[in-house]
Design brief:
Layout lengths: L9 H11 L9 E4 L5 H11 L2 E4 L2 E6 L2 E10 L4 E2 L8 H25 L12 E5 L7 H11 L5 E10 H7 L5 E8 L17 H11 L3
Parallel strand pairs: 1-2, 1-6, 6-7, 7-8
Antiparallel strand pairs: 3-4, 4-5
Protein name: Putative phosphoribosyltransferase
GO molecular function, one term: glycosyltransferase activity
Keywords: Glycosyltransferase, Transferase
Amino acid sequence: MSESVIFIDRTDAAEQLAAGLQEYQGRHPLILVIPRGAVPMGKILAERLHGELDIVLAHKLASPFNPEFAIGAIDETGWVYLPDTTEDDEDTIAMIETIKERQLAELKQRRLRYTPFMHPIDPQGRIVIVVDDGLATGATMIAALHAVRAKQPAELICAIPIAASDSLEKITPLVDKVVCLHETWHFGVISQFYALFAQVDDEEVSQILAASNGD
């Protein structure tokens, strides 16, 4: 494995995260994962901690000039995190509105696709652990945490195997606790820290969620 590789795969990362979250075992935590990559990890965490599994939907707002670059993120309610927007630039505002509408429609389709026969589990008054397979810019996680916090959980935890140090600094004030196994200032892409980083497709997500909720 290369020097940057820390985890064998997402299963390895999830098992290590579960060990770091042992204080929540038996307290019926709600594990909310950001699809798609983190969903298999969430399944493992829910099993190890004796909790419930569901998804929290947020999506990056991709730059029209570079689809891989996130200019922000949006949650299911339409709330948008835009860290570097020039709000007096009318062209920029119009472009962002177009991107927002497209991504919000996609989030609604994902909800129907992933959990067609169940309502989202209510986080109110619950210990909620929001999980992703890594934290790069942090934009999607910030949108996800905003959506969950608005529903008044008793405790909100962000759990991630690997994070960019500057992004972790943005996340920390938004939660009651962060469980991060490794952080680094030398962050390229999340996949660089995994020896195996297989794509997780929509069908796998749907199957895991259906099995976890007894459908």
